[in-house]
Structure formats: C-alpha cells, structure tokens
Amino acid sequence: MGKANIKVVKDNQKAIHPRSRKAKQISKKVSRELKLKKRRGDSNIKLQCLGDKLAWFKENMDQEMDVITPGQVLELIQKYIDRNTEELEQITLKHSIGGRQVRQHASREDCLRITKERETELFTNSGFETVDFLTPDSLKIFKSWTGELRHLPNIKLRKYTKQGLEAMISGASETSEQCNPHQMEEDDLDAEEEDSGDEEMSE
C-alpha cells in the first residue's frame, strides 16, 4: 500500500478561535472598514443634497447681478422653501376629487410637507444654510460654479435667519433715509421757510 497523503496545515491556515486575539483584531478591522464605508456613503449623500440645493439657487438667481441685497436673499430662500407648494396643492386637489378615503401619493405628500416644515424651522430659528450671497467674492465664485460636486468646498456657505435678514433690510432702509441728500435739502429748506415766517410775524 502506498503512503497516505498527509496534509500539512500551516499556521495561517489554522482555524481561528472566535475568542482569540487574532479574531478580535480581524473583527475590529472589519468593523472599522464598515464604519468608514458608511461615513463615505453618508458624506456622498450630504454632498449630493447640498449640490442639488445650490444648483436650484444658481438657476433661480439673477446671473447678471454682481451684488445681492438682503431682501433678494430673503426672497430667494423663501422661494426655495415654497418650491414644492404647487405639487402639494395638486396632491390635495386629487384627494378632494370624488371624496376619496384612501390617500394617494401619501408618502410623497408627507415627504414634501415634512421637508417644508423642517426648512421653515431652520430659517426661523437656527439658520438656513446656503451660499454667502452678501460677500462679493463668494458670490463671484458661486456664479462661476459649473455644478460639479468636487468644487463645492470652494463655495463659502452661510446660515441666514428670516429675522436676521429682515433686520438687515430694516437697517439698510433707515441708513438710506438718514443719508438721503435730497431729503436733507428739503428739510433745510422747510426749516429756512419756517424761520423766515417767524421773523415776518415778529416784525
């Protein structure tokens, strides 16, 4: 009889005990790779969402303007928040036709409604993040953006609140009134006329 074939098992081919140090090292490495993969995935999703949002602002802003006022920023953000209002109204109209009990497009309706509520909450309280429109250099960079996600880090972002923008608008209006030379001239003329009238009466 021939010799039986004896398989030599090398160290790296041995079964790894689940509680061994090597098993723990492998488990730790796999866990780390999964976490990194998840982070990269989450980061890509966030980047895509930001890209979609900024693309909307680029399409809906006046490309010819080199300076944007707080009032125009307020109008743009509010328009963005209300971008799905028409679709929501159409879904509501479909529900009302024929007295339907079952909500069609319910998931879409809920998604749009929740999104609007969340964005409104941000704009009212902690701040709605978008491009720093009020800084000329940032605006110039944004206008030159071609829509590529890899160039998003070059765009300076800023958080705006509705109250903050309204305060800027109010402050700019007051400053304009105070610095209006025509108004100052009219006030001076009125004062001179009043003084001359008083002198005539005293004579």
TrEMBL record:
State where composition is biased (Polar residues). Answer: 172-181
Q: Where is the composition biased (Basic residues)?
A: 16-29
The record's listing under InterPro entries reads:
Tma16, Tma16_sf
Query: Which Gene Ontology terms of cellular component type are present?
Result: nucleus
Q: Write out the ranges of the annotated region (Disordered).
A: 1-29, 171-203
Gene3D superfamilies hit by this protein: Translation machinery-associated protein 16-like
Compositional bias of type Acidic residues: which residue ranges?
185-203
Specify the superkingdom.
Answer: Eukaryota
Name the protein family: Belongs to the TMA16 family.
The entry's protein name is: Translation machinery-associated protein 16
Origin organism is Portunus trituberculatus (Swimming crab)
Q: Which gene carries the instructions for this protein?
A: tma16
